[in-house]
Amino acid sequence: MARRGLSDKTDRPKDIKYVLRRLWGYLMRYKAWLIAAAALTGAGNICALIGPSLSGRAIDAIHPSGGTDFKEVGICVALMVIFYVLSSVLSYLLSVLMIHITRKIVFAMRRDAFNSLAALPVNYFDSNYAGDIISRLSYDIDTVNTSLSSDLVQILASAITIAGAFIMMLTISPALSAVFLVTIPLSVAVTSFITKKVHPLFRKRSAALGDLNGYAEEMITGQKTIRAYSCEDEIMRRFDEKNGEACRSFYNADYYGSMAGPSMGFINNLSLSLISILGAALYLFGRISIGSISSFVLYSRKFAGPINELANIVNELQSSCAAAERVFRLIDEEKENARDAIDEDAEINGTDVSLSHVRFGYTPDKMVIHDLSLDVREGALIAVTGPTGAGKTTLINLLMRFYDAQSGSIKIDGVNIKSVSRDDLRRLYAMVLQETWLFNGTVYENIAYAKPDATEDDVISAAKAARIHEFIERLPNGYDTVLSENGINISKGQKQLLTIARAMLCDAKMLILDEATSNVDTRTEQYISNAMRSLMKDKTCFVIAHRLSTIKNADTILVVNDGDITEKGTHDELMKKRGAYYQMYMSQYR
Amino acid sequence: MKWLLAYIAPYKARIVFELAIKTVATSMDLCIPWILGHIIDVVIPAGNAPRIALWGALMILCSIICVVGNVSANRLASSVARDTTMNIRHDLFGKIMSLSSERMDYFTVPSLVSRITTDTYNINNMTGMILRLGIRAPILLFGGMFITLSMDATLAAVWIAALPMAIGVFVIVSARGIPLFTRLQQSIDDMVRVIRENISGVRVIKALSKTEYEKNRFSGVNERVSANEERANAAMSITNPAINMLLNLALSVVILIGAYRVSGGRTGVGTLVAFTSYFTVILNAVMGITRIFVVISKAAASARRIGGVLFDESDFGTEKLPASDSAYISFKDVSFSYNKRKDNLSDISFSLNKGETLGIIGATGSGKTTLINLLMRFYDADKGEIIIDGRNVRSYDKDILRRKFGVVFQNDILFADSVKNNIRFGREIDDENIISALKSAQAYDFVQNLRHGIDTALNPKGNDLSGGQKQRLLIARALAAQPEILVLDDSSSALDYKTDAALRAALAENYAGTTLIIIAQRISSVKDMDCIIFLDNGRIEGMGTHEQLMAECAMYKETADLQMGV
Question: Which residues of B are less than 8 Å from A385 in CB distance?
């Protein structure tokens, strides 16, 4: 299976357009607020510009040796105070507003990314690093966050200042403005050079960080094993490789990115030099006054700040574009139901299940199930056994539609399961898997997970049936004990019992047990299977187990080998047959 | 935050060099306006064309020095940030790898994952930014202070008086901001946890159609993260306008007082004009400092979180204890409790000779895995002694202790790497041993059928294999280094009886000198062991061979009868 998470490293020229289009969509949801922000930016900038002109007026009114118009000075200073306070208040409001808008946008992006995650096929999770996915939802979105909340305003403010100064310069001397015929194309060229150079570097930086995150997450998860084998050195070496890669790509992007500021400063200084040379020439020919050169220069100095800012922003925007792209790729990943053709009229109750000529492999070149046909009547207990890797769990994957068969069909009540929604299909089953899964919540929440409206009595009786009630009672806070991720006090067997209690609460029509009691002691298992049996009296049951005592009472036992059913029948029939099942059964006495 | 200095210190020379270049470049930047003024005021009116050209050329030269200087200084700054981050991450990861199980439980995996990525990333950002911008702003600030003081000390005193107030703003805002950033990082931990849970539980969630529920759950943490983000950023966002206002108000006062001073003839109008234009430079410098300050506040929260792990008193030390002449492995009156309230193991005593085999069986939660945790010293026993090869486990260097073992845990994991590397696992093991380990673990056949044999790359956590295949690879990993002690903690549960029996036969044949400890649920897995312990509620309920237990231990017999279908 390809690592899809890493495949989006390849360069596609339309990426920036794609990212901007998607980002624009998010921004436009807050159109009104953005307009308000733009208005605040404008007003704040005007206030900030009025300040210096007032101070100029005040200074004009000051004259040495008693000629000062103190009234004028007083008024001007008072106005200055007012405008400066006003401008600060406006700029504070503006940043609070932008932070708020950004919060909304970022919230929506994270929500959409997670919702996309929830709708992705199981396959995606089987072939992508958890850490890389986490990196997209945390680091990448955070990068977008930082740049949205400050950069948008900055761009707008800079644009206003630059435009204003440019107009002023044009009015002073169109001839001197000719300098910009050189410097503006130059700065465009430099910016686009840096952008082109830097964009892939920023993408690489995001990807490398995701990769590092993926590795770190995997290794931290397996920390105990690593310590047990004392192979920290080797793990460290590999970590250092990835760490080096992440730091280097961070550096590369930073290096080229941080060239933007000084380069723009250079162009600005260059234009100042050209202006003074050209201005001098014009002056020598009597085409311009010293005063005009002086104020032209003043305005073109005004360029320096915002242009420098813009150059820095280009850098940050690059970084957030690269990050946003990874987020959008996740959001736009093909969903589980993307190719579904659901027949609205089809209805399934979950009684009879039939498989005909099912063929399936996780990769097209290697089939796990070759040609499987099977009919299961309502209320039957079907047990599946066979050597490891024979395709038993795969069968469950197909029944639940975690994967779709390459050919053949699976029908429930005569309806092809592809023509009903996955939710409807899955609601038919209660399932306990080999891999126990509990989340960070109380014991109660974990048991009631499948049935939120269950009463306390329901939960307790399910726990009793799963033989875990007494254990729970002995926990520090009973049913309100929070199961933390590592849950050191809970053994795997106890986790299995909790998940069994969870499944017992389900009102499902069918039950799937995939090695559900493999880590539970036999006495408990026996008790549970009896409880389960009475609970599932009229329900169809699929049980996968190695412990033959678990499956002995099944209505039909299927022995699977290499994806094909090799034997089929009741315990007695199969024992009489003296085939693979007999061999297996007898081997447990050896 | 102070520990960070120790990580930056090795790059002192590079930093000094960088700052020197930056200082030159910045002073060039300051020279250019002066040259410009000179050209306009003196050179152009003189009308001497060659001199105009000369000064113009000088200006261009300054610009070039400026850009080259800044770019190379930035490059040095980024490289220092890169190397510092690399070292911090290296040490942090190394530390995490050596954390004791108890400390792992305390920090939790999601929090450690986000510390090693997001938090180190914040540090990286900060170091780079301080080095890049940190010199220019102070130069401008102090330069401006110096020049204005030399122009008119009284007026300069007015705006300089505003500086303590600005510092006051920084102090107040950061006192509010840093805890908010800490809280933000904590809520990010929660978010990471929910995402991780959703990734690992994807089958269960889909099977139970709980997608909507999970979306809501995520929405809750997402809301908290967003709210904390907004709160922290909003708290910081007051800095810029507040400082701006403070300095501009100071300017207003400067003009007012300046008016009186000019009137009184104590200063000139020209000075006042120059004063205001320098003031713009000072304001920009302070704004630059403000930006750095915001980044520092954010990184301070991260630095504290990283430091918390980095300087955690982690693993148990090695103690000097007298040698003991007991059996190869022996437990003497060992008791242990995870929460130090209720014992998970009580008064466990047994001994085992080298090459003997031990089976441990018992109900779920009876303390089987805990026993292994103590034996391998993932936890220290509260009471009693555990001896391996004549030495208390507490007196071993932990690498030497653990190298004696080959182990498969209950929830053991495979990594996204080739089959071969998963089995070699960083140890010096040649292919021959790997293959014989695979054969003994009954894994060779299926591995050969994989696309690239033992070089086949596995998916993350090995989740493209079946449960039984995973277990067999894990067992091969445990066998590959020919360990003195082999521990299999319920790690053949997904194997069918035939494979299980073949595995046990192979172990008996090829690893006869290995002391074997098997935890199992199936009687058949342990019944040939030299000694079997039946645990119940943390106590030894029965101990002996299969035959002895069948005769003496009622609970054991009951289990056996059930499994054999008697």
Answer: 496
